[in-house]
Amino acid sequence: APLARSYHERVIDHYEKPRNVGSLNRQAANVGTGVVGAPACGDVMKLQIQVNEQTGVIEEAVFKTFGCGSAIASSSLATEWVKGKTLEEASAITNNEIATYLSLPPVKKHCSMLAEDAIKAAVRDLLDKREKGKTASA
Ligand code: FES
Ligand code: FES
Fold first, then answer.
1. Which atom of ligand 1 lies nearest, measured to the CA of 38?
2. pTM recorded for the entire structure
3. For ligand 2, is residue 102 a contact (CB within 6 Å)?
4. Which residues form the domain of 9?
5. ipTM
């Protein structure tokens, strides 16, 4: 199909076989949840990370995306990339790296931006939880 041909095969691959679709327990102390929307198109992405408290490393990452193929591919890729990383390392992932890897055209840049924002929001949520936990036990 002409539409399929205009997309990079990595986008198609992640779109057809999205990795790590799902949900984690939002209430869990070691789970961070990021929900972000793209004002430009109304698409919404939820990305969750689960950290191993012993190692500080992200051991699980899942997503649910209501949006275009590029947004689904970007979030799928993001869950793969954050796994095995620390929160700091995960926060350093940029939309440019995602867009470059998936060869997203300029008009689809905001789709990868959604993934970067979702990662950062999930990390922030987890750090907020930790802060509150400290306050609660102080
Ligand atoms: Fe969001 Fe493309 S405009 S699906
Ligand atoms: Fe809006 Fe992709 S996230 S078109």
1. 1
2. 0.89
3. no
4. 2-130
5. 0.70
